[in-house]
Amino acid sequence: RKEYVDLYVNYVFNESVQKPFQDFMQGFLRGCPARNWKMFLPVELQVVLQGHTTVDWHLLEKNVVYGLYNKSDKTIKDFWNVFHELPEEKKKMFLGFLSGSDRIPGYRLECFRFSIVDPQAKNPDELYPFANTCSLIFCLPR
């Protein structure tokens, strides 16, 4: 029985997927030659492909660029006070709202910047916050 189980597991996890995996690997290596990836350790390659899974939220705050706001404005202070009280899951949801992903891209965390701008609405109470994910701009009404 043990031999049967071993052979069956080998078939399911190795032999049965060998052809589809070879096709995938051939296509992947056509677009991303292996010589370019060999310089990375597995952990580094994972960060390059998937992004950082942990975020220093205070560093993120420090790197923000403000448009039509100052760091000392009440709206900005209130925003960061509320933001830092959120649970980790909600902070990542904000990051997804802002950038389309709940992870920081693979380059250094210190280089990730986004902007908080005032959309200058006539009646800001009637406008919800919105984001431009391509430009990493968060529009926060006063």
Q: What does this protein structure show overall?
A:
- Residues 1-142 form the HECT domain.
- This protein is of the alpha/beta class and 142 residues long.
- The chain has two domains: 1-50, no CATH class; 57-139, Hect, E3 ligase catalytic fold.
- The protein has seven helices and four strands, in the order H-H-H-H-H-E-H-H-E-E-E.
- Strands 1-2-4-3 form a four-stranded mixed beta sheet, covered by helices on one side.
- Strand 3 (130-132) and strand 4 form a beta hairpin.
- The protein is elongated.
- The relative contact order is 0.12.
What summary fits the major beta sheet? 4 strands, mixed
What is the total tally of β strands? 4
Enter the CATH topology name of the largest domain. Answer: Hect, E3 ligase catalytic fold
Q: Please, what is the CATH homologous superfamily of the largest domain?
A: Hect, E3 ligase catalytic domain
Using the alpha-carbon principal axes, give the shape.
elongated
Which spans have pLDDT < 50 for at least 5 consecutive residues? none
CATH architecture of the largest domain: 2-Layer Sandwich
Structural class: alpha/beta
Helix count?
7
Strand fraction: 5-15%
The helix content, as a percent range, equals 40-55%
